[in-house]
Amino acid sequence: MTFEQRLHAFNTTRNALLDEMERVATGALVATPIAGAWSILDIIEHLVLAERAVFRELPDPRRLVDATRGVADHVRYLLVLFVLTSRVRVRVPSPAMVPRGNRGLTELRRRWDENQAWVRSCIDCHGAEVGRRVVCEHPIAGPLTLEQALVMGQIHVDGHIRQIRALQRLLT
């Protein structure tokens, strides 16, 4: 899959989720079956905040991390991918990724669209080859290429979509 195809697939998944959630009653978006658990809206806010934290340098393409990755970075990246695909519950790796529960779906869509506009701006500024450059930073996985960040983002979204489906089943 090319970088552009991966980006398109990610945005297709993201927009389908948001479109579906726009048809869900507000009460169901904020409901939690267990005290202290995240609601559907909290999960979506977490996805937006997590992506924003990893892509935080992209709004100003001149300030890209552009670091190199060592063996330890590759191992940490694979470890994060393993955790994301194994459905193991872990703590959020950064306070910046914890949902506050004070944003509506419209605001979250706007912010998520803004995150993706940062990606598009970076590609427009540096060309498609920027996908292979280390331009992002994850709190656990360390420096990431834009393509690695998109792979991680897709897996992260897919995992939380499963969580949303389970939550919807519990609430019905």
Short structural description:
The protein contains 6 helices and 2 strands; from the N terminus they run αααααββα.
Describe the 3D structure.
This protein is mainly α and 172 residues long. The chain contains six helices and two strands; from the N terminus they run αααααββα. Strands 1-2 form a two-stranded antiparallel ribbon. A hairpin with a 3-residue loop joins β1 and β2 (142-145). α1 (3-22) runs antiparallel to α5 (105-126). The longest helix has 26 residues, at 146-171. It is globular. It starts with a helix and ends with a helix.
List the keywords.
single chain; 172 residues; mainly alpha; Four Helix Bundle (Hemerythrin (Met), subunit A); two-stranded antiparallel ribbon; 60% helix
Main beta-sheet strand count, sense and barrel state: 2 strands, antiparallel
The helix/strand order is HHHHHEEH
**What is the strand tally?**
2
| Shape category | globular
What is the number of independent domains? 1
User: What integer is the average pLDDT?
Assistant: 90
Number of helices: 6
Helix- and strand-based class? mainly alpha
Give the low-pLDDT segments.
none
Beta-strand residue percentage: 5-15%
CATH hierarchy class name:
Mainly Alpha
CATH fold name: Four Helix Bundle (Hemerythrin (Met), subunit A)
Radius of gyration: 16 Å
Largest beta sheet: what is the strand line-up?
Answer: 1-2
